[in-house]
Specification:
This protein is α+β, with helices and mostly antiparallel strands. 36% of the residues lie in helices and 21% in strands.
């Protein structure tokens, strides 16, 4: 026995979504044996755009029963039946959540007519209820009202039951281990099955092939499946749009994190919220003026020649320059902590030896600046971090250049790398961003014993 269900709602996701109309047809496989249809008072305002779509407004539901007044009828008519709907997870989860809010359980086996149609009736451009019914000459009246959509879904379900191969498909879909009721309606099971159980990143794509979400995982297949079980509004909306999933394996979680960050900034997926902003970078650099005096200065990265180190705010740059001034007895004026002054008069840094007043030898001052530069460079050295490769025959590496993330790469274990020139052939160069900097720094802090190779000996 089946119950074919359709609901209209206030359109606020899942947890905040309230039912405004429900229609249930009880179907024995041959004919409709019972029906329950009712408007429902959601006890909240119905948005204008929902009224425009369904025609249901606040006035229509004012005297309608609330959901708690019809739960007994819903339980009675659906008891010992298989819950069927077009994109079943939406209708099922909204009803389940409404029951949960009342302290009630609602558990039924499920079948999705979108997934069944894609399997039994392949080749259609669209599997939306309206377009599918039009293609199959199934009458659909009163569109976007619960009874009209539920009745059309019943006629579609009847056709599916009598399609060649339906017995095998229905049996497979009802097998709890098949996860068919869990997968997004537009996603072929074969796409999910080919996902590997290894570290990497994955791409959710819509029906047009547009990437709508990028994620990373230690186990790609397991992480993707967790999205399908997640009942958060964003997750459900994302899964409803997902028609394909692609992936790239990474070999390790660290490489996966870096790959994910780069992919998000490249594709700007609809459902990724974090890491989309391109944060302005600043740099500390040095130069020699016409009098032969060495300066330390900071500017936006694009305007900084030969940067010594990179930061993500001008404030951070100034703080470092102040520390260098104090430590090496440098001049605030020539560290550009004071601009437009004939000589320094910094409120905090008072140990300038007089280069700005002409009382300190230039060579002596420049030697102090050179020592400061050497310390900065030493703190931002070149090294690589070795990671597991994508196969047992290769190794991955993360390249840090002048203290900045420069990219990652993969090398066959049979290769011997002696220099950066050798390593550069395998490097996949990537932008250093605030996120990648944090990823690498966090990893090194959590793994202080992780060996860093400085290329004085063969490293890989």
């Amino acid at each position: 026995m089946y119950t074919i269900v359709d609901i209209e709602t206030t359109g606020n996701g899942i947890k905040g979504n309230k039912i405004t109309e429900i229609s249930i047809f009880k179907y024995d496989g041959y004919e409709i044996v019972d029906e329950f249809t009712s408007l429902v008072n959601p006890e909240c305002d119905i948005p204008y755009f929902i009224t425009g779509l369904t025609g249901i407004d606040n006035q229509m539901v004012r005297d309608a029963p609330t959901i708690d007044q019809i739960t007994d009828k819903i339980i009675e008519i659906t008891k010992d039946t298989i819950f069927v709907a077009h994109s079943v997870n939406f209708d099922y989860n909204v009803i389940k959540n409404e029951f949960k809010n009342l302290g009630l359980d609602f558990v039924r086996k499920k079948l999705c007519t979108v997934r069944l149609s894609r399997k039994l009736l392949p080749g259609y451009n669209s599997y939306s209820l309206g377009k599918l019914c039009s293609s199959l000459n199934i009458p659909l009246t009163d569109r976007h009202r619960a009874r009209g959509d539920a009745h059309a879904t019943t006629l579609l379900f009847q056709k599916l039951l009598r399609t060649k191969g339906a017995d095998i498909v229905f049996k497979k879909f009802l097998n709890s281990r098949s996860q068919e009721a869990t997968l997004p309606p537009a996603l072929d099971r074969e796409v999910y099955e080919r996902l590997p159980e290894v570290p990497g990143i994955y791409f959710f794509k819509d029906a047009k092939g547009v990437i709508i979400y990028v994620g990373k995982a230690i186990n790609i297949k397991k992480r993707v499946l967790s999205h399908f079980y997640d009942k958060a509004t964003k997750e459900i909306a994302m899964c409803q749009e997902t028609a394909d999933i692609d992936f790239e394996i990474s070999g390790s979680e660290l490489v996966a994190l870096l790959m994910e960050s780069d992919a998000i900034k490249h594709h700007y997926p609809k459902y990724n919220r974090a890491q989309k902003r391109n944060i302005q970078q600043f740099a500390i650099f040095s130069y020699e003026d016409r009098n032969g005096i060495f300066h330390l200065a900071h500017n936006k990265l694009k305007a900084a020649p030969n940067p010594l180190t990179i930061y993500y705010s001008a404030t951070d740059c100034r703080a470092v320059l102040q520390d260098l001034c104090k430590t090496f007895d440098l001049c605030p004026k020539y560290c550009h902590l004071q601009e437009g002054v004939s000589h320094c008069s910094h409120y905090e840094i008072t140990n300038c030896s007089g280069i700005c007043r002409g009382t300190e030898d230039i060579a002596h001052y420049n030697a102090k600046v050179s020592k400061a530069i050497a310390v900065v460079k030493e703190q931002h050295q070149n090294f690589v971090v070795q990671e597991k490769g994508r196969t047992v025959e290769e190794q991955a590496f993360i390249w840090i250049e002048n203290g900045r993330y420069a990219g990652y790469g993969f090398v066959q274990k049979e290769e011997t790398i002696h220099s950066y020139e050798n390593l550069d052939d395998f490097l996949i160069r990537k932008k250093n961003t605030l996120e990648t900097q944090r990823i690498v720094q966090s990893y090194l802090l959590k793994n202080p014993k992780k060996e860093k190779f400085h290329l004085t000996n063969p490293i890989l």
